[in-house]
Design a protein that fits this description.
The protein is an alpha/beta fold. The protein has three domains: about 60 residues, no CATH class; about 55 residues; about 170 residues, Nucleotidyltransferase, domain 5 (2-Layer Sandwich), CATH 3.30.420.10. About 40% of the residues lie in helices and about 10% in strands. A six-stranded mixed sheet has the order 3-8-7-4-5-6, with helices on both faces. Strands 1-2 form a two-stranded antiparallel sheet. Strand 5 and strand 6 form a beta hairpin. It is elongated, with a radius of gyration of 31 Å.
Length: about 350
């Protein structure tokens, strides 16, 4: 029977239901055309045509052919069982072992494992699975890696971004910073921040520096969370790089923390210092991202006094040795050394 009040809406690509197959069977018996049935069910013509062919059964020694809804449903279920994607764990086992080893021994991300192996030619593409599949394998328990072992997967900041009025005036605002810094096409633009261990005013802190183009980090242990300690650290960097300091450090961007109150005094005709808006950590997001990496080694609440200067430098070396997708699976260390070679050869 025709139902003029049928208003069922279907998403594009949604499979036929058992009820719709029953309707097809009834209407075909009533002599409806496939086109009329398609319009009635609000389905594409080819969907009804293919379903009619799939569920048609020869009856009475092949003398009569009729569409049966239960036959169509059964063949649909059989086809669905055969349509699932096959996992490639066995044929890519060597690559998966490589991923697990690099993840555990070197602290590489799953994407870094895939990209570096492909870029270096260590594995052919046919013997690998992509980054998305690696994460799917973790979700399915097919790799000896758990989601809790992935430092970034379970924590994403979903809070809205806000720019608040600047209450402090430590120096030039980030709004005055050249647009060339934002593009990351030029070497020598750094973001500064400090990382606390336990919240004790007299405790040592880590000063974190990240170069925006190469993503190379310099992590230093400071005696305390004071402006004098930061000033001493910058002075030590000036001694280390000597006459090339201004070539390596063209701009410095820091937040409005009191520990950076003396940074403006370090400004020269070449090295410029800028400050972000308060409560706007995304304005130096590269540094914030790398601070999360530091937390892999120094958990929140753990005193930095428990770690030596050599420990902090070792942690930085580990992070600088990680291949990055954004760098074409090169490491920050490789790109940073290339830039230093260019500067010192000039």
């Amino acid at each position: 029977m025709d139902n003029p009040n049928c208003n069922t809406e279907h998403r594009k690509g949604q499979h036929l239901t058992a009820e719709e197959r029953h309707d097809i069977e009834v209407h075909l018996k009533d002599g409806w055309s496939r086109y009329k049935i398609a319009k009635h069910l609000n389905r594409p013509f080819n969907t009804i045509k293919n379903e009619a062919a799939r569920g048609t059964l020869a009856m009475y020694h092949g003398k009569v052919s009729r569409y049966k809804a239960d036959v169509g449903q059964q063949r649909y279920k059989e086809n669905r069982r055969s349509s699932t994607r096959k996992y490639r764990c066995l044929e890519t086992s060597a690559f998966l072992k490589y991923v697990v080893n690099q993840f555990r021994a070197e602290g590489w991300s799953l994407d870094a494992c895939f990209g570096r192996a492909l870029e270096s030619g260590e594995f052919s593409r046919k013997k690998m699975v992509c980054t998305k599949t690696l994460y799917n394998y973790v979700d399915l328990g097919l790799l000896p890696i758990r989601n809790i072992d992935l430092p970034e997967k379970l924590r994403r900041n979903t809070k809205p971004k806000r720019v608040r009025e600047n209450r402090k005036n430590l120096g030039k605002s980030i709004e005055e910073r050249p647009e060339s810094v934002e593009s990351r096409e030029e070497f020598g633009h750094w973001e500064f921040d400090s990382v606390l261990g336990s919240k004790n005013a007299d405790e040592p802190v880590a000063l974190t520096l990240v170069e925006r183009m190469t993503r190379n980090v310099i992590w230093l242990k400071l005696r305390d969370h004071s402006a004098a300690a930061v000033t001493d650290a910058v002075s030590a960097l000036k001694l280390e790089f000597g006459e090339h300091f201004s070539d390596v450090f063209k701009t410095i961007t820091a937040d409005n923390g009191s520990e950076f109150a003396g940074l403006s005094a370090q400004e020269t005709s070449v090295t410029k210092v800028y400050f972000t808006h308060p409560f706007s950590s995304w304005e130096k997001g590269t540094n914030e991202c790398h601070n999360k990496m530091l937390r892999r080694f120094i958990p929140k609440g753990r005193s930095i006094s428990d770690y030596s200067i050599e420990d902090i430098m070792f942690f930085a070396d580990r992070i600088n040795g990680l291949p990055r997708k954004v760098l074409g699976y090169k490491t920050p260390e490789e790109l940073f050394e290339k830039q230093l070679d260019r500067i010192y050869a000039a």
